[in-house]
Write a structure and sequence with these properties.
This is Carboxypeptidase regulatory-like domain-containing protein. The protein has 836 residues and is mainly beta. Helix content is 9%, strand content 37%.
Length: 836
């Protein structure tokens, strides 16, 4: 409901805000097309003992698909979703919800599949990984027999640790909260609580994934029979004897109660009384005597869920009363569960809140975003969004969302009784100092009332406001404060007042600490030794999205030139030689480059060391002092200083950095659909490419499909494929064929056939070219170790088709590749246009 409602609001705002031309339809507008494949149903229960309520369940299937619609658990942890009949097997993950956890399970066939700590531990044991990173590569998924074997190992270890396990399979046996398997889940958590060497479930999961099953915690001992008139640990409850005043209704997700979730505290009475004998008078018609107590659970040592739970039935699903406590073990909230699904919550005292921030206080923790202060509370939203067409026009619009990519609320503190979805600040471009609400200046918010049916969304717009802009620059940077604002909404006559706030965009804070070794997909890193206002600290990696919350359209581009050519020999180069340069470009990309540049050529310095070189591919390190220009002229600023931009002082124009670089990567590129994109098909134009012998960049046995490009024709063929998970421009795999004889027959690369010498080459996103031949002094030569044969089986009906087999070599580049592996063997089919 939130996703659909919010989408409507976003579309409405976009329709009013500008003329962005991006097409986000993602599909064909036509009504025809093939029928959808048959659906299969998966369902089950997500639980940790307690049911996981309102958790999001996702399916990541071997064919790359998932659930056909959003799947959420209900109040009993039950969920159900459809997948296509060809999608299995699938990995299932539950995230968020109450309690908020991440657990995984595995479905090899349709039907019942539970998601619990047991299924999660089995998969961790089967993969040796606890973080789920293995899911991204279906080719490496454990098969059903491995999962069955590891399940047996785990259940055997639990039996040896004293757990009594019921019959059935914990993956596929229908699970209901309170039944035998659910009690095992409760016992696992109790065993963790009782074992001082295991901090929490994550610690147990890491033990299991490493195969340390002998260290599984002992099952909790059975409690001795208790006289119902005198529970053995009655003092756990009677220590909190007294009369508690209910201070009124409230909403939200209290920090002292991780399992409570966001709900209304709806107790209508004035007091809750706990007697010194252990009797509880919860309401006018809800009361219990000490003789009714079956069990008392002491969880006061659980930091995120300090509570005393008093059960009046045989399980947690029956009637009970729960006392929730803060860090000082003071009663904050008392909850009654009637055992039939109804919960009554009594708020006893508010959690202490920080005093309203002092004017000028840092609210965003040196991050990008928008913060607002209302009724003494701060909402700091660190997901800034700024329309690119407003980066340098009359108005700069900064919006920060209060939800993640899965539409889960991040800051759950109620705002004026509702959820805050986003906050937006508009400032007039180029005006420093005080700005009052007007045509280009304003504050707006979106709040959502989920308790209403249907859900109510309110758009709040400032009728009066005072903003102060203390920094503004043409590269997209803006920073300032909300001094005050009065806002009204589009649903009723209510008004609210903001007593402060803050906004900031494109202030970069890197990941803390020194950059690690260059990962497979990383081309450069940069660690800041001495930063500026906009480039503060930490390190950045080239080849990954920025991690500081900046908008994706904002760019950091890093460039190094060592010496006077693009194939520098190993050695040390200095900016003083006139041919060596280090440049960092940042800000909005206006035409082809970001707006602002730090350059060693602006009066800075640099030392660039090429450590290894092979075939125009090189690896090295650098240190540099980069300078911004002292004025707005020249290409260093792109469009130059804008109206109202401040002249940067020298300290804000000087950036001292160091790092590593290379002009290629060593990452492996995988085909979709579990490593197989299928045969070419009878009508498809392009090539199939099966990896017969892999290397650094390709895995043996995988099969790709490359589409024929528009320019393909006869003797010359051009084929390409884009990797959607890689960043442009380093996301294209491209094969080029040249001098192919247009006649049926078998042709060997570099063998003259009527004046044509066939050849083929493959360029990769890694910037490593593979080929069969090379040209030197105008002569085409066969590369050492390379070969290819092209079998043309048909040249008719406007297409040429056949099969091929080849070994392609990255000539002269072995020294910079792992294990010196510079060759790849492949084969496949082809079909592309031919105009006689």
């Amino acid at each position: 409901m939130f996703r659909a409602g919010l989408l409507g609001v976003i579309l409405a705002v976009a329709g009013c805000g500008g003329d962005s031309s991006r097409d986000s339809s993602g599909g064909n507008g036509g009504g025809g097309g093939p029928s959808a494949p048959a659906a299969s149903s998966l369902s089950g229960t997500a639980a940790v003992g307690a049911a996981i309520q309102t958790g999001t369940v996702t399916a990541e299937c071997a064919d790359g698909s998932g659930f056909t619609s959003t799947v959420t658990t209900n109040a009993d942890g039950v969920w159900s979703g459809d997948i296509t009949s060809t999608a299995l097997p699938c990995v299932l993950t539950v995230t968020g919800g109450t309690p908020s956890v991440t657990l995984r399970s595995y479905a090899s066939q349709a039907g019942t599949i539970n998601i619990t700590p047991i299924t999660d531990m089995v998969l961790a044991l089967a993969t040796g990984l606890a973080d789920g990173s293995w899911i991204a590569t279906p080719a490496n998924w454990p098969d059903a027999s491995t999962i069955a074997s590891k399940k047996t190992e785990l259940l055997t270890a639990m039996t040896n640790a004293g757990f009594t396990l019921p019959g059935g399979d914990p993956f596929s046996t229908a699970l209901a909260v309170g039944d035998a398997w659910d009690q095992v889940l409760d016992a696992i958590q109790e065993a963790i609580d009782d074992d001082p060497s295991i901090a929490d479930y994550n610690a147990l999961l890491n033990l299991v994934k490493d195969g340390n099953l002998g260290q599984f915690p002992d099952a909790p001992e059975d409690e001795e029979p208790v006289d119902p008139e005198l529970p053995a640990n009655l003092n756990v409850l009677t220590n909190y004897a007294g009369t508690y005043t209910v201070i009124g209704n409230g909403e939200g997700d209290p920090g002292y109660c991780a399992s409570c979730g966001s709900a209304t505290r709806n107790h209508a009475r004035g007091t809750v009384i706990i007697s010194a004998q252990g009797d509880i008078d919860f309401d006018t018609d809800i009361g219990f005597t000490v003789a009714d107590i079956v069990e008392i659970y002491d969880r006061t040592n659980v930091a995120t869920d300090r509570r005393v739970a008093v059960n009046y039935g045989q399980s947690d699903s029956d009637e009970r009363v729960r006392l929730y406590l803060n860090a000082d073990l003071e009663v904050m909230e008392i909850i009654h569960d009637d055992g039939a699904g109804a919960t009554t919550r009594a708020l006893i005292q508010e959690d202490s809140t920080d005093p309203e921030p002092e004017p000028g206080a840092e609210l965003l923790e040196m991050r990008n975003g928008v913060a607002v202060v209302h009724d003494g509370k701060v909402w700091a939203l660190e997901q800034p969004f700024i329309e690119s067409f407003m980066a340098s026009t009359a108005k700069r619009q900064i919006r920060a969302h209060n939800y993640d990519s899965d539409y889960n609320t991040i800051n759950s503190t109620p705002f004026n009784g509702d959820d805050l979805a986003w906050a937006q600040v508009n400032v007039a471009h180029g005006n420093l100092g005080t700005q009052l609400c007007g045509q280009s200046t304003g504050v707006s918010l979106l709040t959502v009332d989920y308790a209403a049916s249907p859900v109510v969304q309110k758009t709040w717009t400032a009728t009066e406001c005072e903003l102060y802009v203390d920094y503004h620059f043409s590269n997209g940077a803006t920073e300032g404060r909300i001094i005050s604002a009065t806002l009204s909404n589009d649903k009723d006559d209510e008004q609210i007042t903001l007593s402060g706030g803050q906004f900031r965009i494109f202030i970069h804070t890197g990941t803390e600490g020194e950059a690690p070794a260059l990962a497979d997909e990383i081309r450069w890193d940069m660690t800041i030794d001495s930063g500026t206002r906009e480039m503060r600290s930490g390190h950045f990696l080239g080849g990954r999205p920025l991690l500081d919350g900046s908008h994706p359209d904002h760019t950091l581009k890093f460039e190094i030139q060592a010496g006077s050519n693009n194939n520098p020999e190993a050695g040390e180069y200095s900016c003083e030689d006139g041919d060596t340069e280090v440049t960092l470009k940042m800000g909005w990309v206006t035409v082809s480059d970001p707006l602002f540049k730090f350059q060693s050529a602006n009066g800075g310095s640099c030392t660039v060391t090429v450590e290894q070189n092979a075939g125009r591919k090189y690896v090295g390190t650098y240190t540099a002092t980069l300078m911004g220009p002292s004025n707005g002229g020249g290409a260093a600023f792109g469009s130059g200083l804008g109206t109202g931009d401040i002249e940067l002082p020298a300290a804000e124009r000087t950036l001292v950095v160091h790092g590593k670089f290379r002009n290629f990567t060593t990452q492996t590129f995988h085909a979709d659909n579990g490593g197989d994109e299928g045969a070419l098909g009878q009508e498809t134009q392009g090539i199939s490419m099966t990896i017969d012998d892999g290397n650094t960049h390709f895995t043996q046995g995988e099969r790709f499909q490359l589409a024929s490009e528009y320019s393909s024709n006869g003797s010359n063929g051009y084929f390409s494929r884009v990797f959607s998970d890689l960043e442009s421009p380093n996301n294209q795999l491209r094969m080029v064929w040249s001098n192919i004889p247009m006649q049926v027959g078998s042709f060997t690369c570099n063998t003259d056939v009527g004046g044509l010498k066939p050849t083929m080459s493959l360029s990769t996103p890694a910037n490593i070219p593979y080929g069969a031949t090379y040209t030197q002094s105008g002569t085409q030569n066969l590369s050492e170790g390379a070969s290819c044969t092209i079998n043309v089986t048909s040249v008719s009906d406007g297409v040429v088709e056949g099969t091929y087999i080849a070994t392609l070599v990255a000539r002269n580049m072995g020294p910079v590749l792992p294990n010196n592996d510079d060759a790849i063997s492949l084969s496949g089919e082809f079909r592309y246009p031919y105009t006689p």
